[in-house]
């Protein structure tokens, strides 16, 4: 496109325009005006005065409507209005006027290019050019307001165009040769004046900046808290023209994200929800924007659209777009060598020095506030730890500890206790000590599978934690990426990090603690863990003490229970050959650790012999422990022998030590071994072989040193053949059998035994019986004694009680059952329970008090021994019923 210089042709079309005649006087006047203008112009400091002066002086000679000066900005290749002749401008009322006076017009279009490349003033008829592609809008707007022609002249500085004078007229032909020559002549002075004004403005701005920074620095020096900082920043930054909004983000402790610290969305805030979301977001540093700002020592200006096009996906960028911020400046906040955060400004232009000044002030204040916050946080933490330590010293049990931990870490620190594992006594395994299963309610099955089992100190994560000085932080997301199977479970809680620390008492590792949280202070963790370690060590000591106490109580109960027995058994009567053989065997085996199997009919003194063996062995200082295998229901016998852990089966509310453990370093006497259920036989065999027991429901094996003595009145070989007794167990028990003779086989002992029992029961009951009548002796000698010594003992006990004088005249040897003599009419009026009760009593009497085993009442009644035991308990049948009633 080609523009012609102002055409005189056009002027010809407007004959009404008067062309001034150049007289000498006029020339003189013109020269004077130029001189005056030149003088005045150079002294003008205020930019508004300049154009007014210029306009007034020129108008005295030539006609035009108004004029403006625009300035070039080579940075973005634009020019923009600088001086305006508001008073005379015909376009002042135009709707686009306000937009035009702020607009930046491109230098890269034909109209202005023509001006740029022409040294002399150059004029255009608006109609010709205004609608050409890329022509600046102001041409059309002026035309709309009646302007016809424009005269453009370059303003030069140091040989380079710095701007333009625009002169407009509504009368074509106004720009005469003389006019142009005057404008050309005045242009350098005008350029000089504009440069002066610019320089002046620059100086003024610098001063303003200085005083701004001074004010800011004195404001900020008083700042102590984040709120005060926000207020100071707000009052200062709001003085910056064009600032729409700003935010300060602070680098988080993780060193990888930034969170909003101070946020001022400006006069048009976003909706509350969006604002809350922004304030609560951690923005990653490495998002392509923030990392660039933090690495740059000068402020960076970002064009929002361009950054989005470049593929930056940060959520705040989208927010800026929604808020219609076009450009954003990011400046790092840095104290000494440490980046603290970023100041983001929604602004279109930046003054680098000013922003750097502002940022260094903010940085100092922020560093001080952070340091203050850290100090008070430390103080708070210390106070908190003090409280915790106070709470924890009161703790005696696991439940109390769990309560204390949850009260403190959950409520105050938003941290969850996932698990405490404690190293077992073997120093190798770790058992769960405490855990919060509810935390894993979304994955309970996995939690149970993975966490409740015992692990060893060699388990990779545990061994790392135990070896670490101050514990480890596992980032859940990272651990999942690295294939840590536990991390999937952690993820279900929604918390970001798993903090695991070794629990130590002194230098000794006692376990591990696993805490889930999004954030946790190291100092707190350390403090809490040392308190918890102490509490656990105390609880363990307490639990041990309680266990010892319980064991002592059990032993004590035993002792009490057995005192009577021991008293009874303090003497063994029997001088015959058969008993002499028994004594010999006892003395041979007592000093060894061999298992002994005592055989013999009921009441022959098997338990007495077992005690004799124990009492003459090296284990005599500890109590012999007795288990009657027939007296317990099959379901409880295993727990009785081997013990159980809490919850091992329904009803197992407490941990219980088994008789094997109780008999450690002593003797375990298994009476009526023939009655042991097959399942328990298998377990017993294993214990005899391994010499270690495992509690029911427990995973730990416990070494035991127990000497076994078993007794039975059954023929075990027959039981083996019948499949009721394990052959392998029989051989294990039958290492050293001692067969006791029945009383029938040793009649020589009847009289000494009778004397012995008369003396004992006379003493106990306070009778003065000294002798036994020959008749009684004869009766005793002729009886067959199916219940052996026990039967005789009870018989004599009863007879002693019924004897008034000093000689035992009568014994009540059973001669058949009394039930047979019962009057049927009497029976008819009794309840089933009463009949059952008396029938059991009679049967017991017949069996001389023997409850189970061969020849026992249970066998006669054809019910299991333990059923009879419980029936007797239910019906209230005691020894007194079957030994004293007649
Ligand atoms: N040689 C003996 N001298 C003194 N008392 C004896 C003798 N033998 C047995 N007794 C007495 O007989 C009672 C039964 O003895 P013990 O309980 O040892 O017999 P047992 O063979 O174990 O019986 P069971 O087979 O019914 O268990 C005991 O109260 C004991 O006082």
From TrEMBL:
SUPFAM superfamilies: GAF domain-like (SSF55781), Homeodomain-like (SSF46689), P-loop containing nucleoside triphosphate hydrolases (SSF52540). Pfam families: AAA_lid_14, HTH_8, Sigma54_activat. GO terms for molecular function: ATP binding; sequence-specific DNA binding. Residues 572-801 form the Sigma-54 factor interaction domain. GO terms for biological process: regulation of DNA-templated transcription. Keywords: ATP-binding, DNA-binding, Nucleotide-binding, Transcription, Transcription regulation. InterPro entries: AAA+_ATPase, AAA_lid_NorR, GAF, GAF-like_dom_sf, Homeodomain-like_sf, HTH_Fis, P-loop_NTPase, Sigma_54_int. PANTHER family: C4-DICARBOXYLATE TRANSPORT TRANSCRIPTIONAL REGULATORY PROTEIN DCTD, TRANSCRIPTIONAL REGULATORY PROTEIN. This is Sigma-54 factor interaction domain-containing protein.
């Amino acid at each position: 496109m080609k523009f012609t210089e102002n055409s005189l042709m056009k002027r010809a079309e407007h004959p009404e325009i008067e062309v001034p005649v150049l007289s000498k006087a006029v020339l003189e006047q013109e020269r004077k005006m130029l001189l005056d203008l030149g003088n005045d112009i150079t002294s003008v400091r205020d930019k508004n005065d300049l154009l007014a002066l210029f306009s007034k002086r020129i108008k005295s000679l030539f006609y035009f409507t108004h004029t403006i000066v625009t300035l070039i900005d080579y940075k973005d290749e634009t020019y923009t209005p600088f001086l305006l002749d508001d008073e005379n401008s015909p376009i002042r009322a135009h709707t686009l006027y306000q937009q035009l006076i702020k607009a930046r017009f491109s230098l890269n279009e034909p109209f202005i290019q023509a001006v740029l490349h022409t040294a002399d003033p150059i004029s255009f008829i608006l109609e010709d050019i205004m609608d050409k592609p890329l022509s600046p809008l102001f041409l059309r707007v002026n035309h709309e307001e009646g302007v016809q022609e424009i005269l453009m002249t370059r303003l030069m500085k140091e040989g380079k165009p710095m701007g333009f004078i625009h002169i407009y007229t509504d009368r074509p032909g106004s720009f005469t040769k003389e006019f142009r020559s005057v404008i050309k002549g005045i242009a350098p002075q005008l350029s000089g004046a504009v440069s002066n004004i610019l320089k002046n403005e620059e100086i003024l701005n610098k001063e303003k900046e200085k005083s701004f920074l001074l004010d800011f620095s004195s404001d900020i020096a008083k700042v102590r808290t984040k709120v005060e900082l926000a207020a100071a920043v707000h009052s200062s930054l709001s003085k910056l023209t064009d600032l729409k909004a700003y935010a300060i983000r602070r680098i988080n402790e993780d060193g990888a994200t930034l969170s909003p610290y101070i946020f001022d969305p400006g006069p048009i805030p976003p909706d509350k929800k969006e604002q809350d979301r922004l304030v609560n977001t951690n923005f990653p540093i490495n998002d392509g924007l923030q990392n660039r700002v933090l690495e740059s020592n000068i402020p960076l200006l970002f064009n929002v659209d361009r950054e989005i096009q470049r593929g930056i996906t940060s959520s705040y960028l989208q927010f800026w777009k929604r808020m219609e911020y076009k450009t954003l400046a990011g400046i790092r906040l840095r104290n000494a060598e440490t980046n603290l955060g970023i100041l983001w400004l929604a602004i279109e232009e930046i003054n680098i020095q000013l922003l750097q000044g502002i940022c260094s002030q903010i940085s100092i204040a922020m560093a001080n506030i952070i340091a203050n916050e850290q100090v008070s946080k430390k103080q708070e933490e210390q106070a908190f730890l003090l409280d915790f330590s106070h709470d924890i010293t009161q703790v005696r049990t696991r439940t109390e500890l769990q309560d204390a931990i949850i009260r403190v870490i959950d409520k105050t620190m938003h941290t969850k206790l996932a698990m405490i594992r404690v190293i077992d006594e073997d120093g190798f395994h770790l058992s769960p000590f405490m855990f919060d299963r509810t935390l894993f309610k979304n994955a309970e099955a996995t939690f149970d599978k993975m966490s409740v089992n015992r692990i060893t100190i060699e388990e990779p994560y545990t061994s790392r934690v135990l070896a670490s000085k101050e514990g480890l932080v596992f980032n859940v997301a990272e651990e999942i990426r690295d294939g840590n199977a536990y991390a999937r479970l952690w993820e279900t809680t929604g918390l970001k990090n798993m903090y695991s620390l070794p629990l130590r008492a002194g230098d000794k590792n006692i376990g591990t603690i696993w805490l889930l949280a999004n954030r946790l202070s190291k100092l707190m963790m350390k403090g809490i863990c040392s308190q918890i370690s102490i509490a656990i060590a105390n609880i363990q000591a307490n639990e041990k003490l309680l266990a010892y106490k319980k064991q002592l109580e059990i032993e004590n109960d035993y002792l009490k229970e057995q005192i009577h027995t021991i008293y009874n058994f303090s003497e063994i009567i029997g001088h015959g050959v058969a008993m002499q053989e028994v004594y010999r065997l006892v003395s041979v085996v007592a000093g060894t650790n061999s298992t002994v199997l005592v055989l013999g009919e009921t009441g022959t003194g098997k338990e007495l012999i077992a005690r004799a063996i124990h009492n003459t062995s090296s284990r005599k200082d500890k109590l012999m422990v007795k288990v009657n295998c027939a007296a317990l229901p099959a379901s409880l016998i295993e727990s009785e022998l081997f013990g159980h852990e809490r919850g091992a089966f329904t009803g197992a509310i407490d941990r219980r030590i088994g008789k094997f453990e109780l008999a450690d370093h002593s003797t375990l006497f298994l009476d009526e071994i023939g009655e042991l259920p097959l399942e328990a036989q298998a377990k017993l065999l294993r214990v005899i072989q391994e010499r270690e027991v495992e509690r029911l429901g427990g995973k730990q094996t416990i070494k035991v040193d127990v000497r076994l003595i078993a007794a039975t009145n059954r023929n075990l070989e027959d039981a083996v053949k019948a499949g009721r007794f394990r052959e392998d167990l029989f051989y294990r028990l039958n290492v050293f059998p001692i067969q006791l003779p029945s009383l029938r086989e040793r009649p020589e002992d009847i009289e000494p035994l009778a004397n012995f029992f008369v003396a004992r029961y006379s003493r106990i009951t306070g009778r003065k019986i000294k002798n036994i009548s020959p008749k009684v002796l004869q009766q005793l000698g002729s009886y067959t004694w199916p219940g052996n010594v026990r039967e005789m003992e009870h018989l004599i006990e009863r007879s002693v009680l019924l004897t008034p004088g000093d000689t035992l005249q009568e014994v009540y040897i059973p001669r058949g059952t009394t039930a047979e003599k019962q009057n049927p009419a009497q029976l008819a009026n009794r309840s089933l329970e009463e009949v059952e009760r008396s029938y059991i009593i009679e049967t017991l009497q017949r069996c001389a008090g023997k409850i189970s085993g061969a020849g026992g009442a249970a066998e006669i009644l054809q019910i299991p021994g333990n059923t009879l035991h419980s029936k007797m308990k239910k019906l209230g049948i005691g020894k007194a019923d079957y030994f004293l009633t007649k």
